[in-house]
Amino acid sequence: VRRRSSKEIQDPVNVQNILEFNELKYKDSETRMGLRRMYPSPPKDDQTLEIQQQALLREQQKKLDRMRIRRQMEDDAFSGDNPQTTGQFRNGSNEFLKNSLLESDSAFIGANGETFLDFK
C-alpha cells in the first residue's frame, strides 16, 4: 500500500479554488484568452494558482483602464470640452499656473551658449 505524500494531498478548499479559477479561465473572453496564451496549463498548486490569478487581475485592470480612457475621450468629444477651454488650466489670475507643481523656470540658450532667463 502506497501512501500519498503531502504534496499529493491538497486541502479540499484549495482544490475547489483551483476548480473555480479554471472555470473562469476557460470562459470565452478577450482577457481570458490572453491569460490562456500566457499560461496554457491549468494551475496545479497554490503558487501557480496565485500567479495565474494575479495575471488575470492585471489583465482585467488594464482592460478597465482602457475602457475608462475610451469613455472619457468619448465624453470629451461629445461635449466638445477641451481642458484648455473648460477652465481647468485657464484662470483669469493664472493662479493655477502659479501654484502648479509642474511650474519651472525657463531659460533660453543663445547660439553661442549664453543663457537668458525668462522673466515674466
From TrEMBL:
Superkingdom of source: Eukaryota
Segments for region (Disordered): 73-92
One Pfam family linked to the record: CSPP1_C
UniProt-listed GO biological process terms: positive regulation of cytokinesis
Cellular component annotations (GO), alphabetically ordered: centrosome; microtubule; spindle pole
Domain Centrosome and spindle pole-associated protein 1 C-terminal: 14-68
Compositional bias per record (Polar residues), positions renumbered to this chain: 81-92
First and last residue of the signal peptide: none
Coiled coil: none
Protein name: Centrosome and spindle pole-associated protein 1 C-terminal domain-containing protein
Organism per entry: Hypotaenidia okinawae
